[in-house]
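Review session, final week

We close the course with one last complete record, chosen because it touches almost every idea we covered. It is Phytanoyl-CoA dioxygenase, peroxisomal, a protein from Podarcis muralis with 349 residues. Go through it on your own first, then we will talk.
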Amino acid sequence: MAERPSHADSAASAASLRLRALLRHLLPGWGPGAGRPTQFPTSAQVTTVKYPIQYRYTLDNNVLSPEQRDFYEENGYLVIKNLVSDEDVEHFRNEFVKICRQEVIVPGLMVIRDVSIAKSEFIPDQKAVSKLQDFQRHEELFRYCTLSQILKYVECFTGPNIMAMHTMLINKPPDSGKKTSRHPMHQDLHYFPFRPADRIVCAWTAMEKIDRRNGCLVVLPGSHKGPLKQHDYPEWEGGVNKMYHGVRDYDKTIPRVHLAVEKGDTVFFHPLLIHGSGMNKTEGFRKTISCHYASSDCHYIDMKGTIQENMEKEAVDGARAKYGTDSPITLMDIWIMRSRLVKGERINL
């Protein structure tokens, strides 16, 4: 006689079914085949697709000039000047203020405060918020992810089927003296359970003039050609913001490049590029808006036994606390819920 399932097994199965039903409700295009992981044993696996010898990281679509393609291939990033209009930037800024004042409630949105003020009395004002994350259900902010001038360049890296995977609006506060406004040098792929890396790109737009004084992006050109490295929390005296992991070991002889940009300028960069940002030494707040895109042809991977396993556990534990559930959710479930198709066809992700 077959063994009958236990009460605990039945409860876990029911919880899993409820989660899957929720995913189908939120994402009509999501079904049994969507998000199905493929078995790659290591998180350092970057790509299985063969490219022409001269170009690996960019695709042929006549948008980038040969000089721009060569620059991205060699350095792992590209700056496009004045790509987003002042009007759009100010619209996004106003929507950010509305959220900070709690005038609108956005499903799934994470409103994050800097560690230096996280334990202080909450004031519903933009000065208390250091970052918005996962604004994909806020149509006005999400419009950034669908701007035609942004997607025109994104397609050079992802191809025509484009998913918006991760969204952020960062409001870097003036440093309190504890240096918590800086961001350690890291690789974005550390947080991502999908591959190949070469079909993922970030679009990062300055919402005002940004330079070394208020904490511009700092990059290590060419570091995208290396593997995914071990990350952990840096040992900083003033504390570190949640999930602000940094690369444990990298070649410190590589010259750093500080990307000073103007309002509306947009930086596109590879998820293996080692980058970070310095302290905000001014009295104002430094704002940027960004989205990580991936080809919907990408696939999810199993991170158990890899250098991303600890990050996965921290992210899943945080999601369970946020949603108040003990259901057996996975990091893949979280990413399926937060991602949205912006162009073409949804295939794997």
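Two points worth writing down before the exam:
The chain has one domain: 49-343.
Residues 49-343 form a domain with the Jelly Rolls fold (CATH 2.60.120.620).
Good luck, everyone.
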